[in-house]
């Protein structure tokens, strides 16, 4: 018998099941903790069992199998005293089979379809523990690497803590290491483990003296149940410093989510789920270390939730409206209408007119944005045709493409269909793609964009200057227009830092041989500066806010008039 405490070797178990999917599922659940053998029928299984007679800790046994079924295995094992030591857990979907298997000596059941992984792991651990006749409680409730609790009993201990200390107010705190996979990759797993241990030790020092408890949930996620504090800044600073103190040059960065809402009326699981949500929302936001789930956060979540619920109906009832904002060419003496940008609005039956800033990020996070986008594209393409038919003037419209659209295998077909249906040329439907999409996954985006350009589409890189393109990368990007990020235009004054940025963008554009669109232009002064600096196209409140299609017609009629 293997010695257990401090024993690192995994116990060996065998899964006997004819269905590969079941073997795989159990394998995934158990492989971290156990050395798992597999057999596809009773005969092969028995062979392995005899081969590992001294080291096998458990048999997981399916009943219905070809060649030799589970009942036959049970009978054979019962008849052989040398195999009595090894406990058998039966895998079954049939309630009726349970009694028969019990009589044949099965120790426990796992029902099919399989329970939650934790349940299965807990059962397997318990049966082995019983069969070995010793308590494994300590080992089972502690995380081996850090010595903190693991999730299994953690919530129960949280509840107990509150029960025994009726006056304590506790908060749920989640601490997570940013891009931990990168830490592992760059410095190696051993180093990663050291970082985790350091963090765990710091967590212990910080909260245990006041009665808090902590667990390591998985990988690099830690749960802290601690006494309420005024602010979590200090704790965050301490943990960040400690984790970087003894491991040189790793620049480990943390993020923290804190749920201060709910108190003991809400189950710890819920409070930690909320803290985790707050923590996850910090992904990619490096300037902010702590996110608090409070009433305001909660209300916002509920609001999002209701937006999601309203979505389908909004689409069906055409609550999404497309507004158009003119872009003017300012190269000549007089500004000339060059094109328009289509911008979506949501006329919500209860909330009134909702701006895209409020719902686009939400719909981007779950892919629904694709449906909104496609709706806007269709409306825009049809609008170009309508204006041409009704007013005798063709005006290109630029549409916004989201990140998810770039991964849609049907993107190209959808756009080409729109051209065909409305008898448009590709250069009449301009495509705006935000710079940050390029920097996320340059290779895919470049492929997609190249293919679109081969069909004649013109690509505008939106929000240029907000992402992190390098000059090197820019020179290889297939783009037709740079659309300067609005932040450069705002507060631009001659000789100011922003103005130098504008000049820099214009220089880059010249180097790339593409024109620049400046958006967010509000004043005459800005127009003058941009024109002198060599910017060719301007969009902004100076000319017009985004307006509905009917209102936009006046710009078209003006242009027509000027051409007479
Ligand atoms: P964007 O593509 O950068 O669009 C420009 C935003 O600047 C628009 O905000 C526009 O109304 C606003 N704007 C234009 N001129 C001025 C100005 O002079 N001053 C100021 N302060 N703002 C100005 P809007 O319409 O609220 O749209 C916000 C963002 O939502 C857009 O930024 C775009 O990223 C996204 N969006 C809008 N419509 C769609 C759509 O149909 N699909 C997708 N995927 N995103 C969209
Ligand atoms: Ca845009
Ligand atoms: Ca923009």
User: What's the shape?
Assistant: elongated
For the termini, the CA-CA separation is 99 Å
Total helical segments: 22
Bound molecules: ligand C2E, calcium ion
Neighbour order of strands in the largest sheet = 11-12-14-15-16-17-18-19
Total strands: the figure is: 19
- In the CATH hierarchy, what is the class of the largest domain? Alpha Beta
Task: Determine Rg (CA atoms, Å).
Answer: 32 Å
CATH architecture of the largest domain: Alpha-Beta Barrel
* Main structural class: alpha/beta
| Percent in strands | 15-25%
Tally of discrete structural domains: 3
The helix fraction, in percent, is 40-55%
CATH homologous superfamily (4th level) name of the largest domain: EAL domain
**How is the biggest beta sheet arranged?**
8 strands, mixed, barrel
The overall pLDDT, averaged over residues, is: 89
Per CATH, what is the topology of the largest domain?
TIM Barrel
List keywords for this structure.
alpha/beta; Rossmann fold; TIM Barrel; 3 domains; 22 helices; elongated; binds ligand C2E; binds calcium ion
């Amino acid at each position: 018998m293997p010695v257990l405490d401090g024993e690192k070797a995994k116990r060996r178990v065998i899964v006997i099941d004819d269905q590969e999917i079941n073997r795989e599922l159990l394998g995934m659940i158990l492989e971290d903790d156990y050395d798992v053998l597999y057999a596809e029928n009773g005969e092969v299984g028995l062979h392995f069992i005899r081969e590992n007679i001294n080291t096998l800790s458990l048999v997981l046994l399916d009943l219905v199998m070809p060649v030799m079924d589970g009942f036959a295995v049970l009978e054979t094992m019962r008849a052989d005293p040398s195999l009595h030591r090894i406990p058998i857990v039966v895998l079954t979907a049939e309630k009726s089979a349970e009694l028969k298997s019990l009589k044949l000596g099965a120790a426990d059941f796992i029902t099919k379809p399989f329970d939650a992984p934790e349940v299965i792991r807990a059962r397997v651990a318990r049966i082995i523990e019983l069969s070995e006749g010793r308590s494994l409680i300590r080992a089972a409730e502690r995380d081996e690497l850090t010595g903190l609790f693991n999730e299994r009993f953690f919530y129960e201990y949280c509840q107990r803590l509150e029960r025994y200390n009726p006056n304590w107010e506790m908060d749920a705190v989640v601490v997570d290491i940013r891009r931990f996979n990168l830490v592992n990759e760059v410095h190696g797993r051993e180093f990663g483990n050291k970082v985790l241990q350091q963090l765990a030790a710091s967590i212990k020092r910080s909260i245990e003296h006041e009665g808090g408890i902590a667990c390591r949930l998985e990988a690099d996620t830690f749960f802290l149940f601690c006494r309420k504090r005024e602010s979590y800044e200090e704790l965050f600073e301490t943990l960040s410093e400690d984790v970087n103190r003894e491991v040189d040059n790793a620049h480990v960065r943390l993020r923290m989510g804190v749920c201060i809402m709910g108190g003991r009326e809400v189950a710890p699981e819920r409070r930690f789920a909320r803290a985790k949500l707050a923590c996850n929302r910090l992904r990619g936001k490096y300037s902010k270390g702590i996110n608090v789930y409070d009433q305001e956060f909660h209300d916002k979540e509920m609001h999002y939730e209701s937006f999601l619920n309203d979505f389908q109906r909004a689409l069906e009832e055409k609550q999404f409206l497309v507004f158009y904002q003119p872009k003017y060419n300012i190269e000549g003496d007089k500004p000339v209408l060059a094109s328009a940008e289509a911008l979506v609005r949501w006329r919500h039956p209860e909330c009134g007119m909702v701006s895209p800033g409020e719902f686009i990020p939400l719909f981007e996070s779950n892919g629904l944005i694709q449906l909104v986008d496609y709706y806007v594209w269709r409306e825009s393409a049809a609008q170009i045709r309508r204006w041409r038919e009704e007013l005798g003037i063709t005006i290109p419209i630029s549409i916004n493409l989201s990140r998810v659209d770039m991964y849609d295998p049907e993107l190209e077909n959808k756009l080409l269909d729109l051209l065909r249906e409305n008898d448009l040329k590709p250069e009449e439907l301009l495509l705006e793609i935000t710079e940050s999409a390029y920097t996320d996954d340059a290779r895919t985006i470049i492929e997609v964009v190249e293919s679109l350009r081969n069909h004649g589409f013109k690509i505008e890189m939106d929000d240029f200057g907000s992402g992190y393109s390098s000059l090197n990368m820019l020179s290889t990007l297939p783009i037709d227009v740079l659309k300067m990020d609005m932040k450069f235009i705002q507060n631009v004054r001659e000789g100011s830092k922003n103005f130098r940025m504008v000049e820099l963008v214009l220089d880059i554009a010249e180097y790339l041989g593409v024109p620049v669109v400046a958006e967010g232009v509000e004043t005459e002064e800005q127009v003058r500066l941009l024109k002198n600096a060599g910017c060719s196209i301007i969009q902004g409140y100076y000319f017009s806010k985004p307006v509905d299609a009917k209102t936009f017609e006046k710009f078209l009629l003006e242009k027509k008039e000027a051409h007479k």
